[in-house]
Amino acid sequence: MNLQPPRTRIQRKNTENILNAGLEVFSRHGFRGATLDQIAAEAGLSKPNLLYYFPSKEAIHVTLMDRLMQTWLDPLRKLDAGGDPVAELLAYVRRKLQMSRDFPRESKLFANEILQGAPRMLAALEGDLKRLVDEKATVIAGWSRAGRLARIDPHHLIISIWALTQHYADFDVQIRAVLGPGHDPMTEAESYLVTLFTKLLTPEG
């Protein structure tokens, strides 16, 4: 059985530098607009050195998307079927907004991939993502049937949460332009979205 030797500390560092550089370049220019020369320059490496670690631009992008998908799924995985329905969904809203605050480049990378038709991650969207969404949608539907949550389409609820939280990362420049100086978009967004979803999700009576 052939085992690959463990990578050295320098190799691990260079790999992470390349991936971080790729994230920066892809989130700024999209997959089509990004080049290996740009990524190498951002990473502080020569192009031949970069190609020692990754054979192509697509290889860097695929690695980033694989990592991102797992990060993107984590907030929904934490939705607890045994918890209070409204509290669990509000916590999910907060986690998604926190991701927009902490990972704006990753959000833009994801958005760019989707806008291109998801050629490098469609299988993950139709596989892991769909299975998890279907699982949590079943939980939400059960809460609604039990009268613990307002009657609502669970799939469209999840999609709405994505739209209303990720927008703050993907369209940050637009939001800041509209709000003007003196505003903290993420803090204000959290207060607004918690109020909005509390009213939407709380069952009548």
How would you characterize the overall build of this protein?
The chain is mostly helical. The protein folds into 2 domains: 7-55, Homeodomain-like (Arc Repressor Mutant, subunit A), CATH 1.10.10.60; 64-201, Tetracycline Repressor, domain 2 (Orthogonal Bundle). The chain is built from 10 helices and no strands. α1 (9-33) packs across α6 (104-115). The longest helix has 25 residues, at 9-33. Residues 1-5 have low confidence and may be disordered.
Instruction: Quickly count the helices.
Output: 10
Query: What is the radius of gyration computed over CA atoms, rounded to a whole number of angstroms?
Result: 20 Å
**Care to count the β-strands?**
0
User: Approximately what portion of the residues adopt beta-strand conformation?
Assistant: under 5%
Labels describing this entry:
elongated; Arc Repressor Mutant, subunit A; mainly alpha; 205 residues
Quick rundown:
The protein is mainly alpha-helical. The chain has two domains: about 5-55, Arc Repressor Mutant, subunit A (Orthogonal Bundle), CATH 1.10.10; about 65-200, Orthogonal Bundle (Tetracycline Repressor, domain 2).
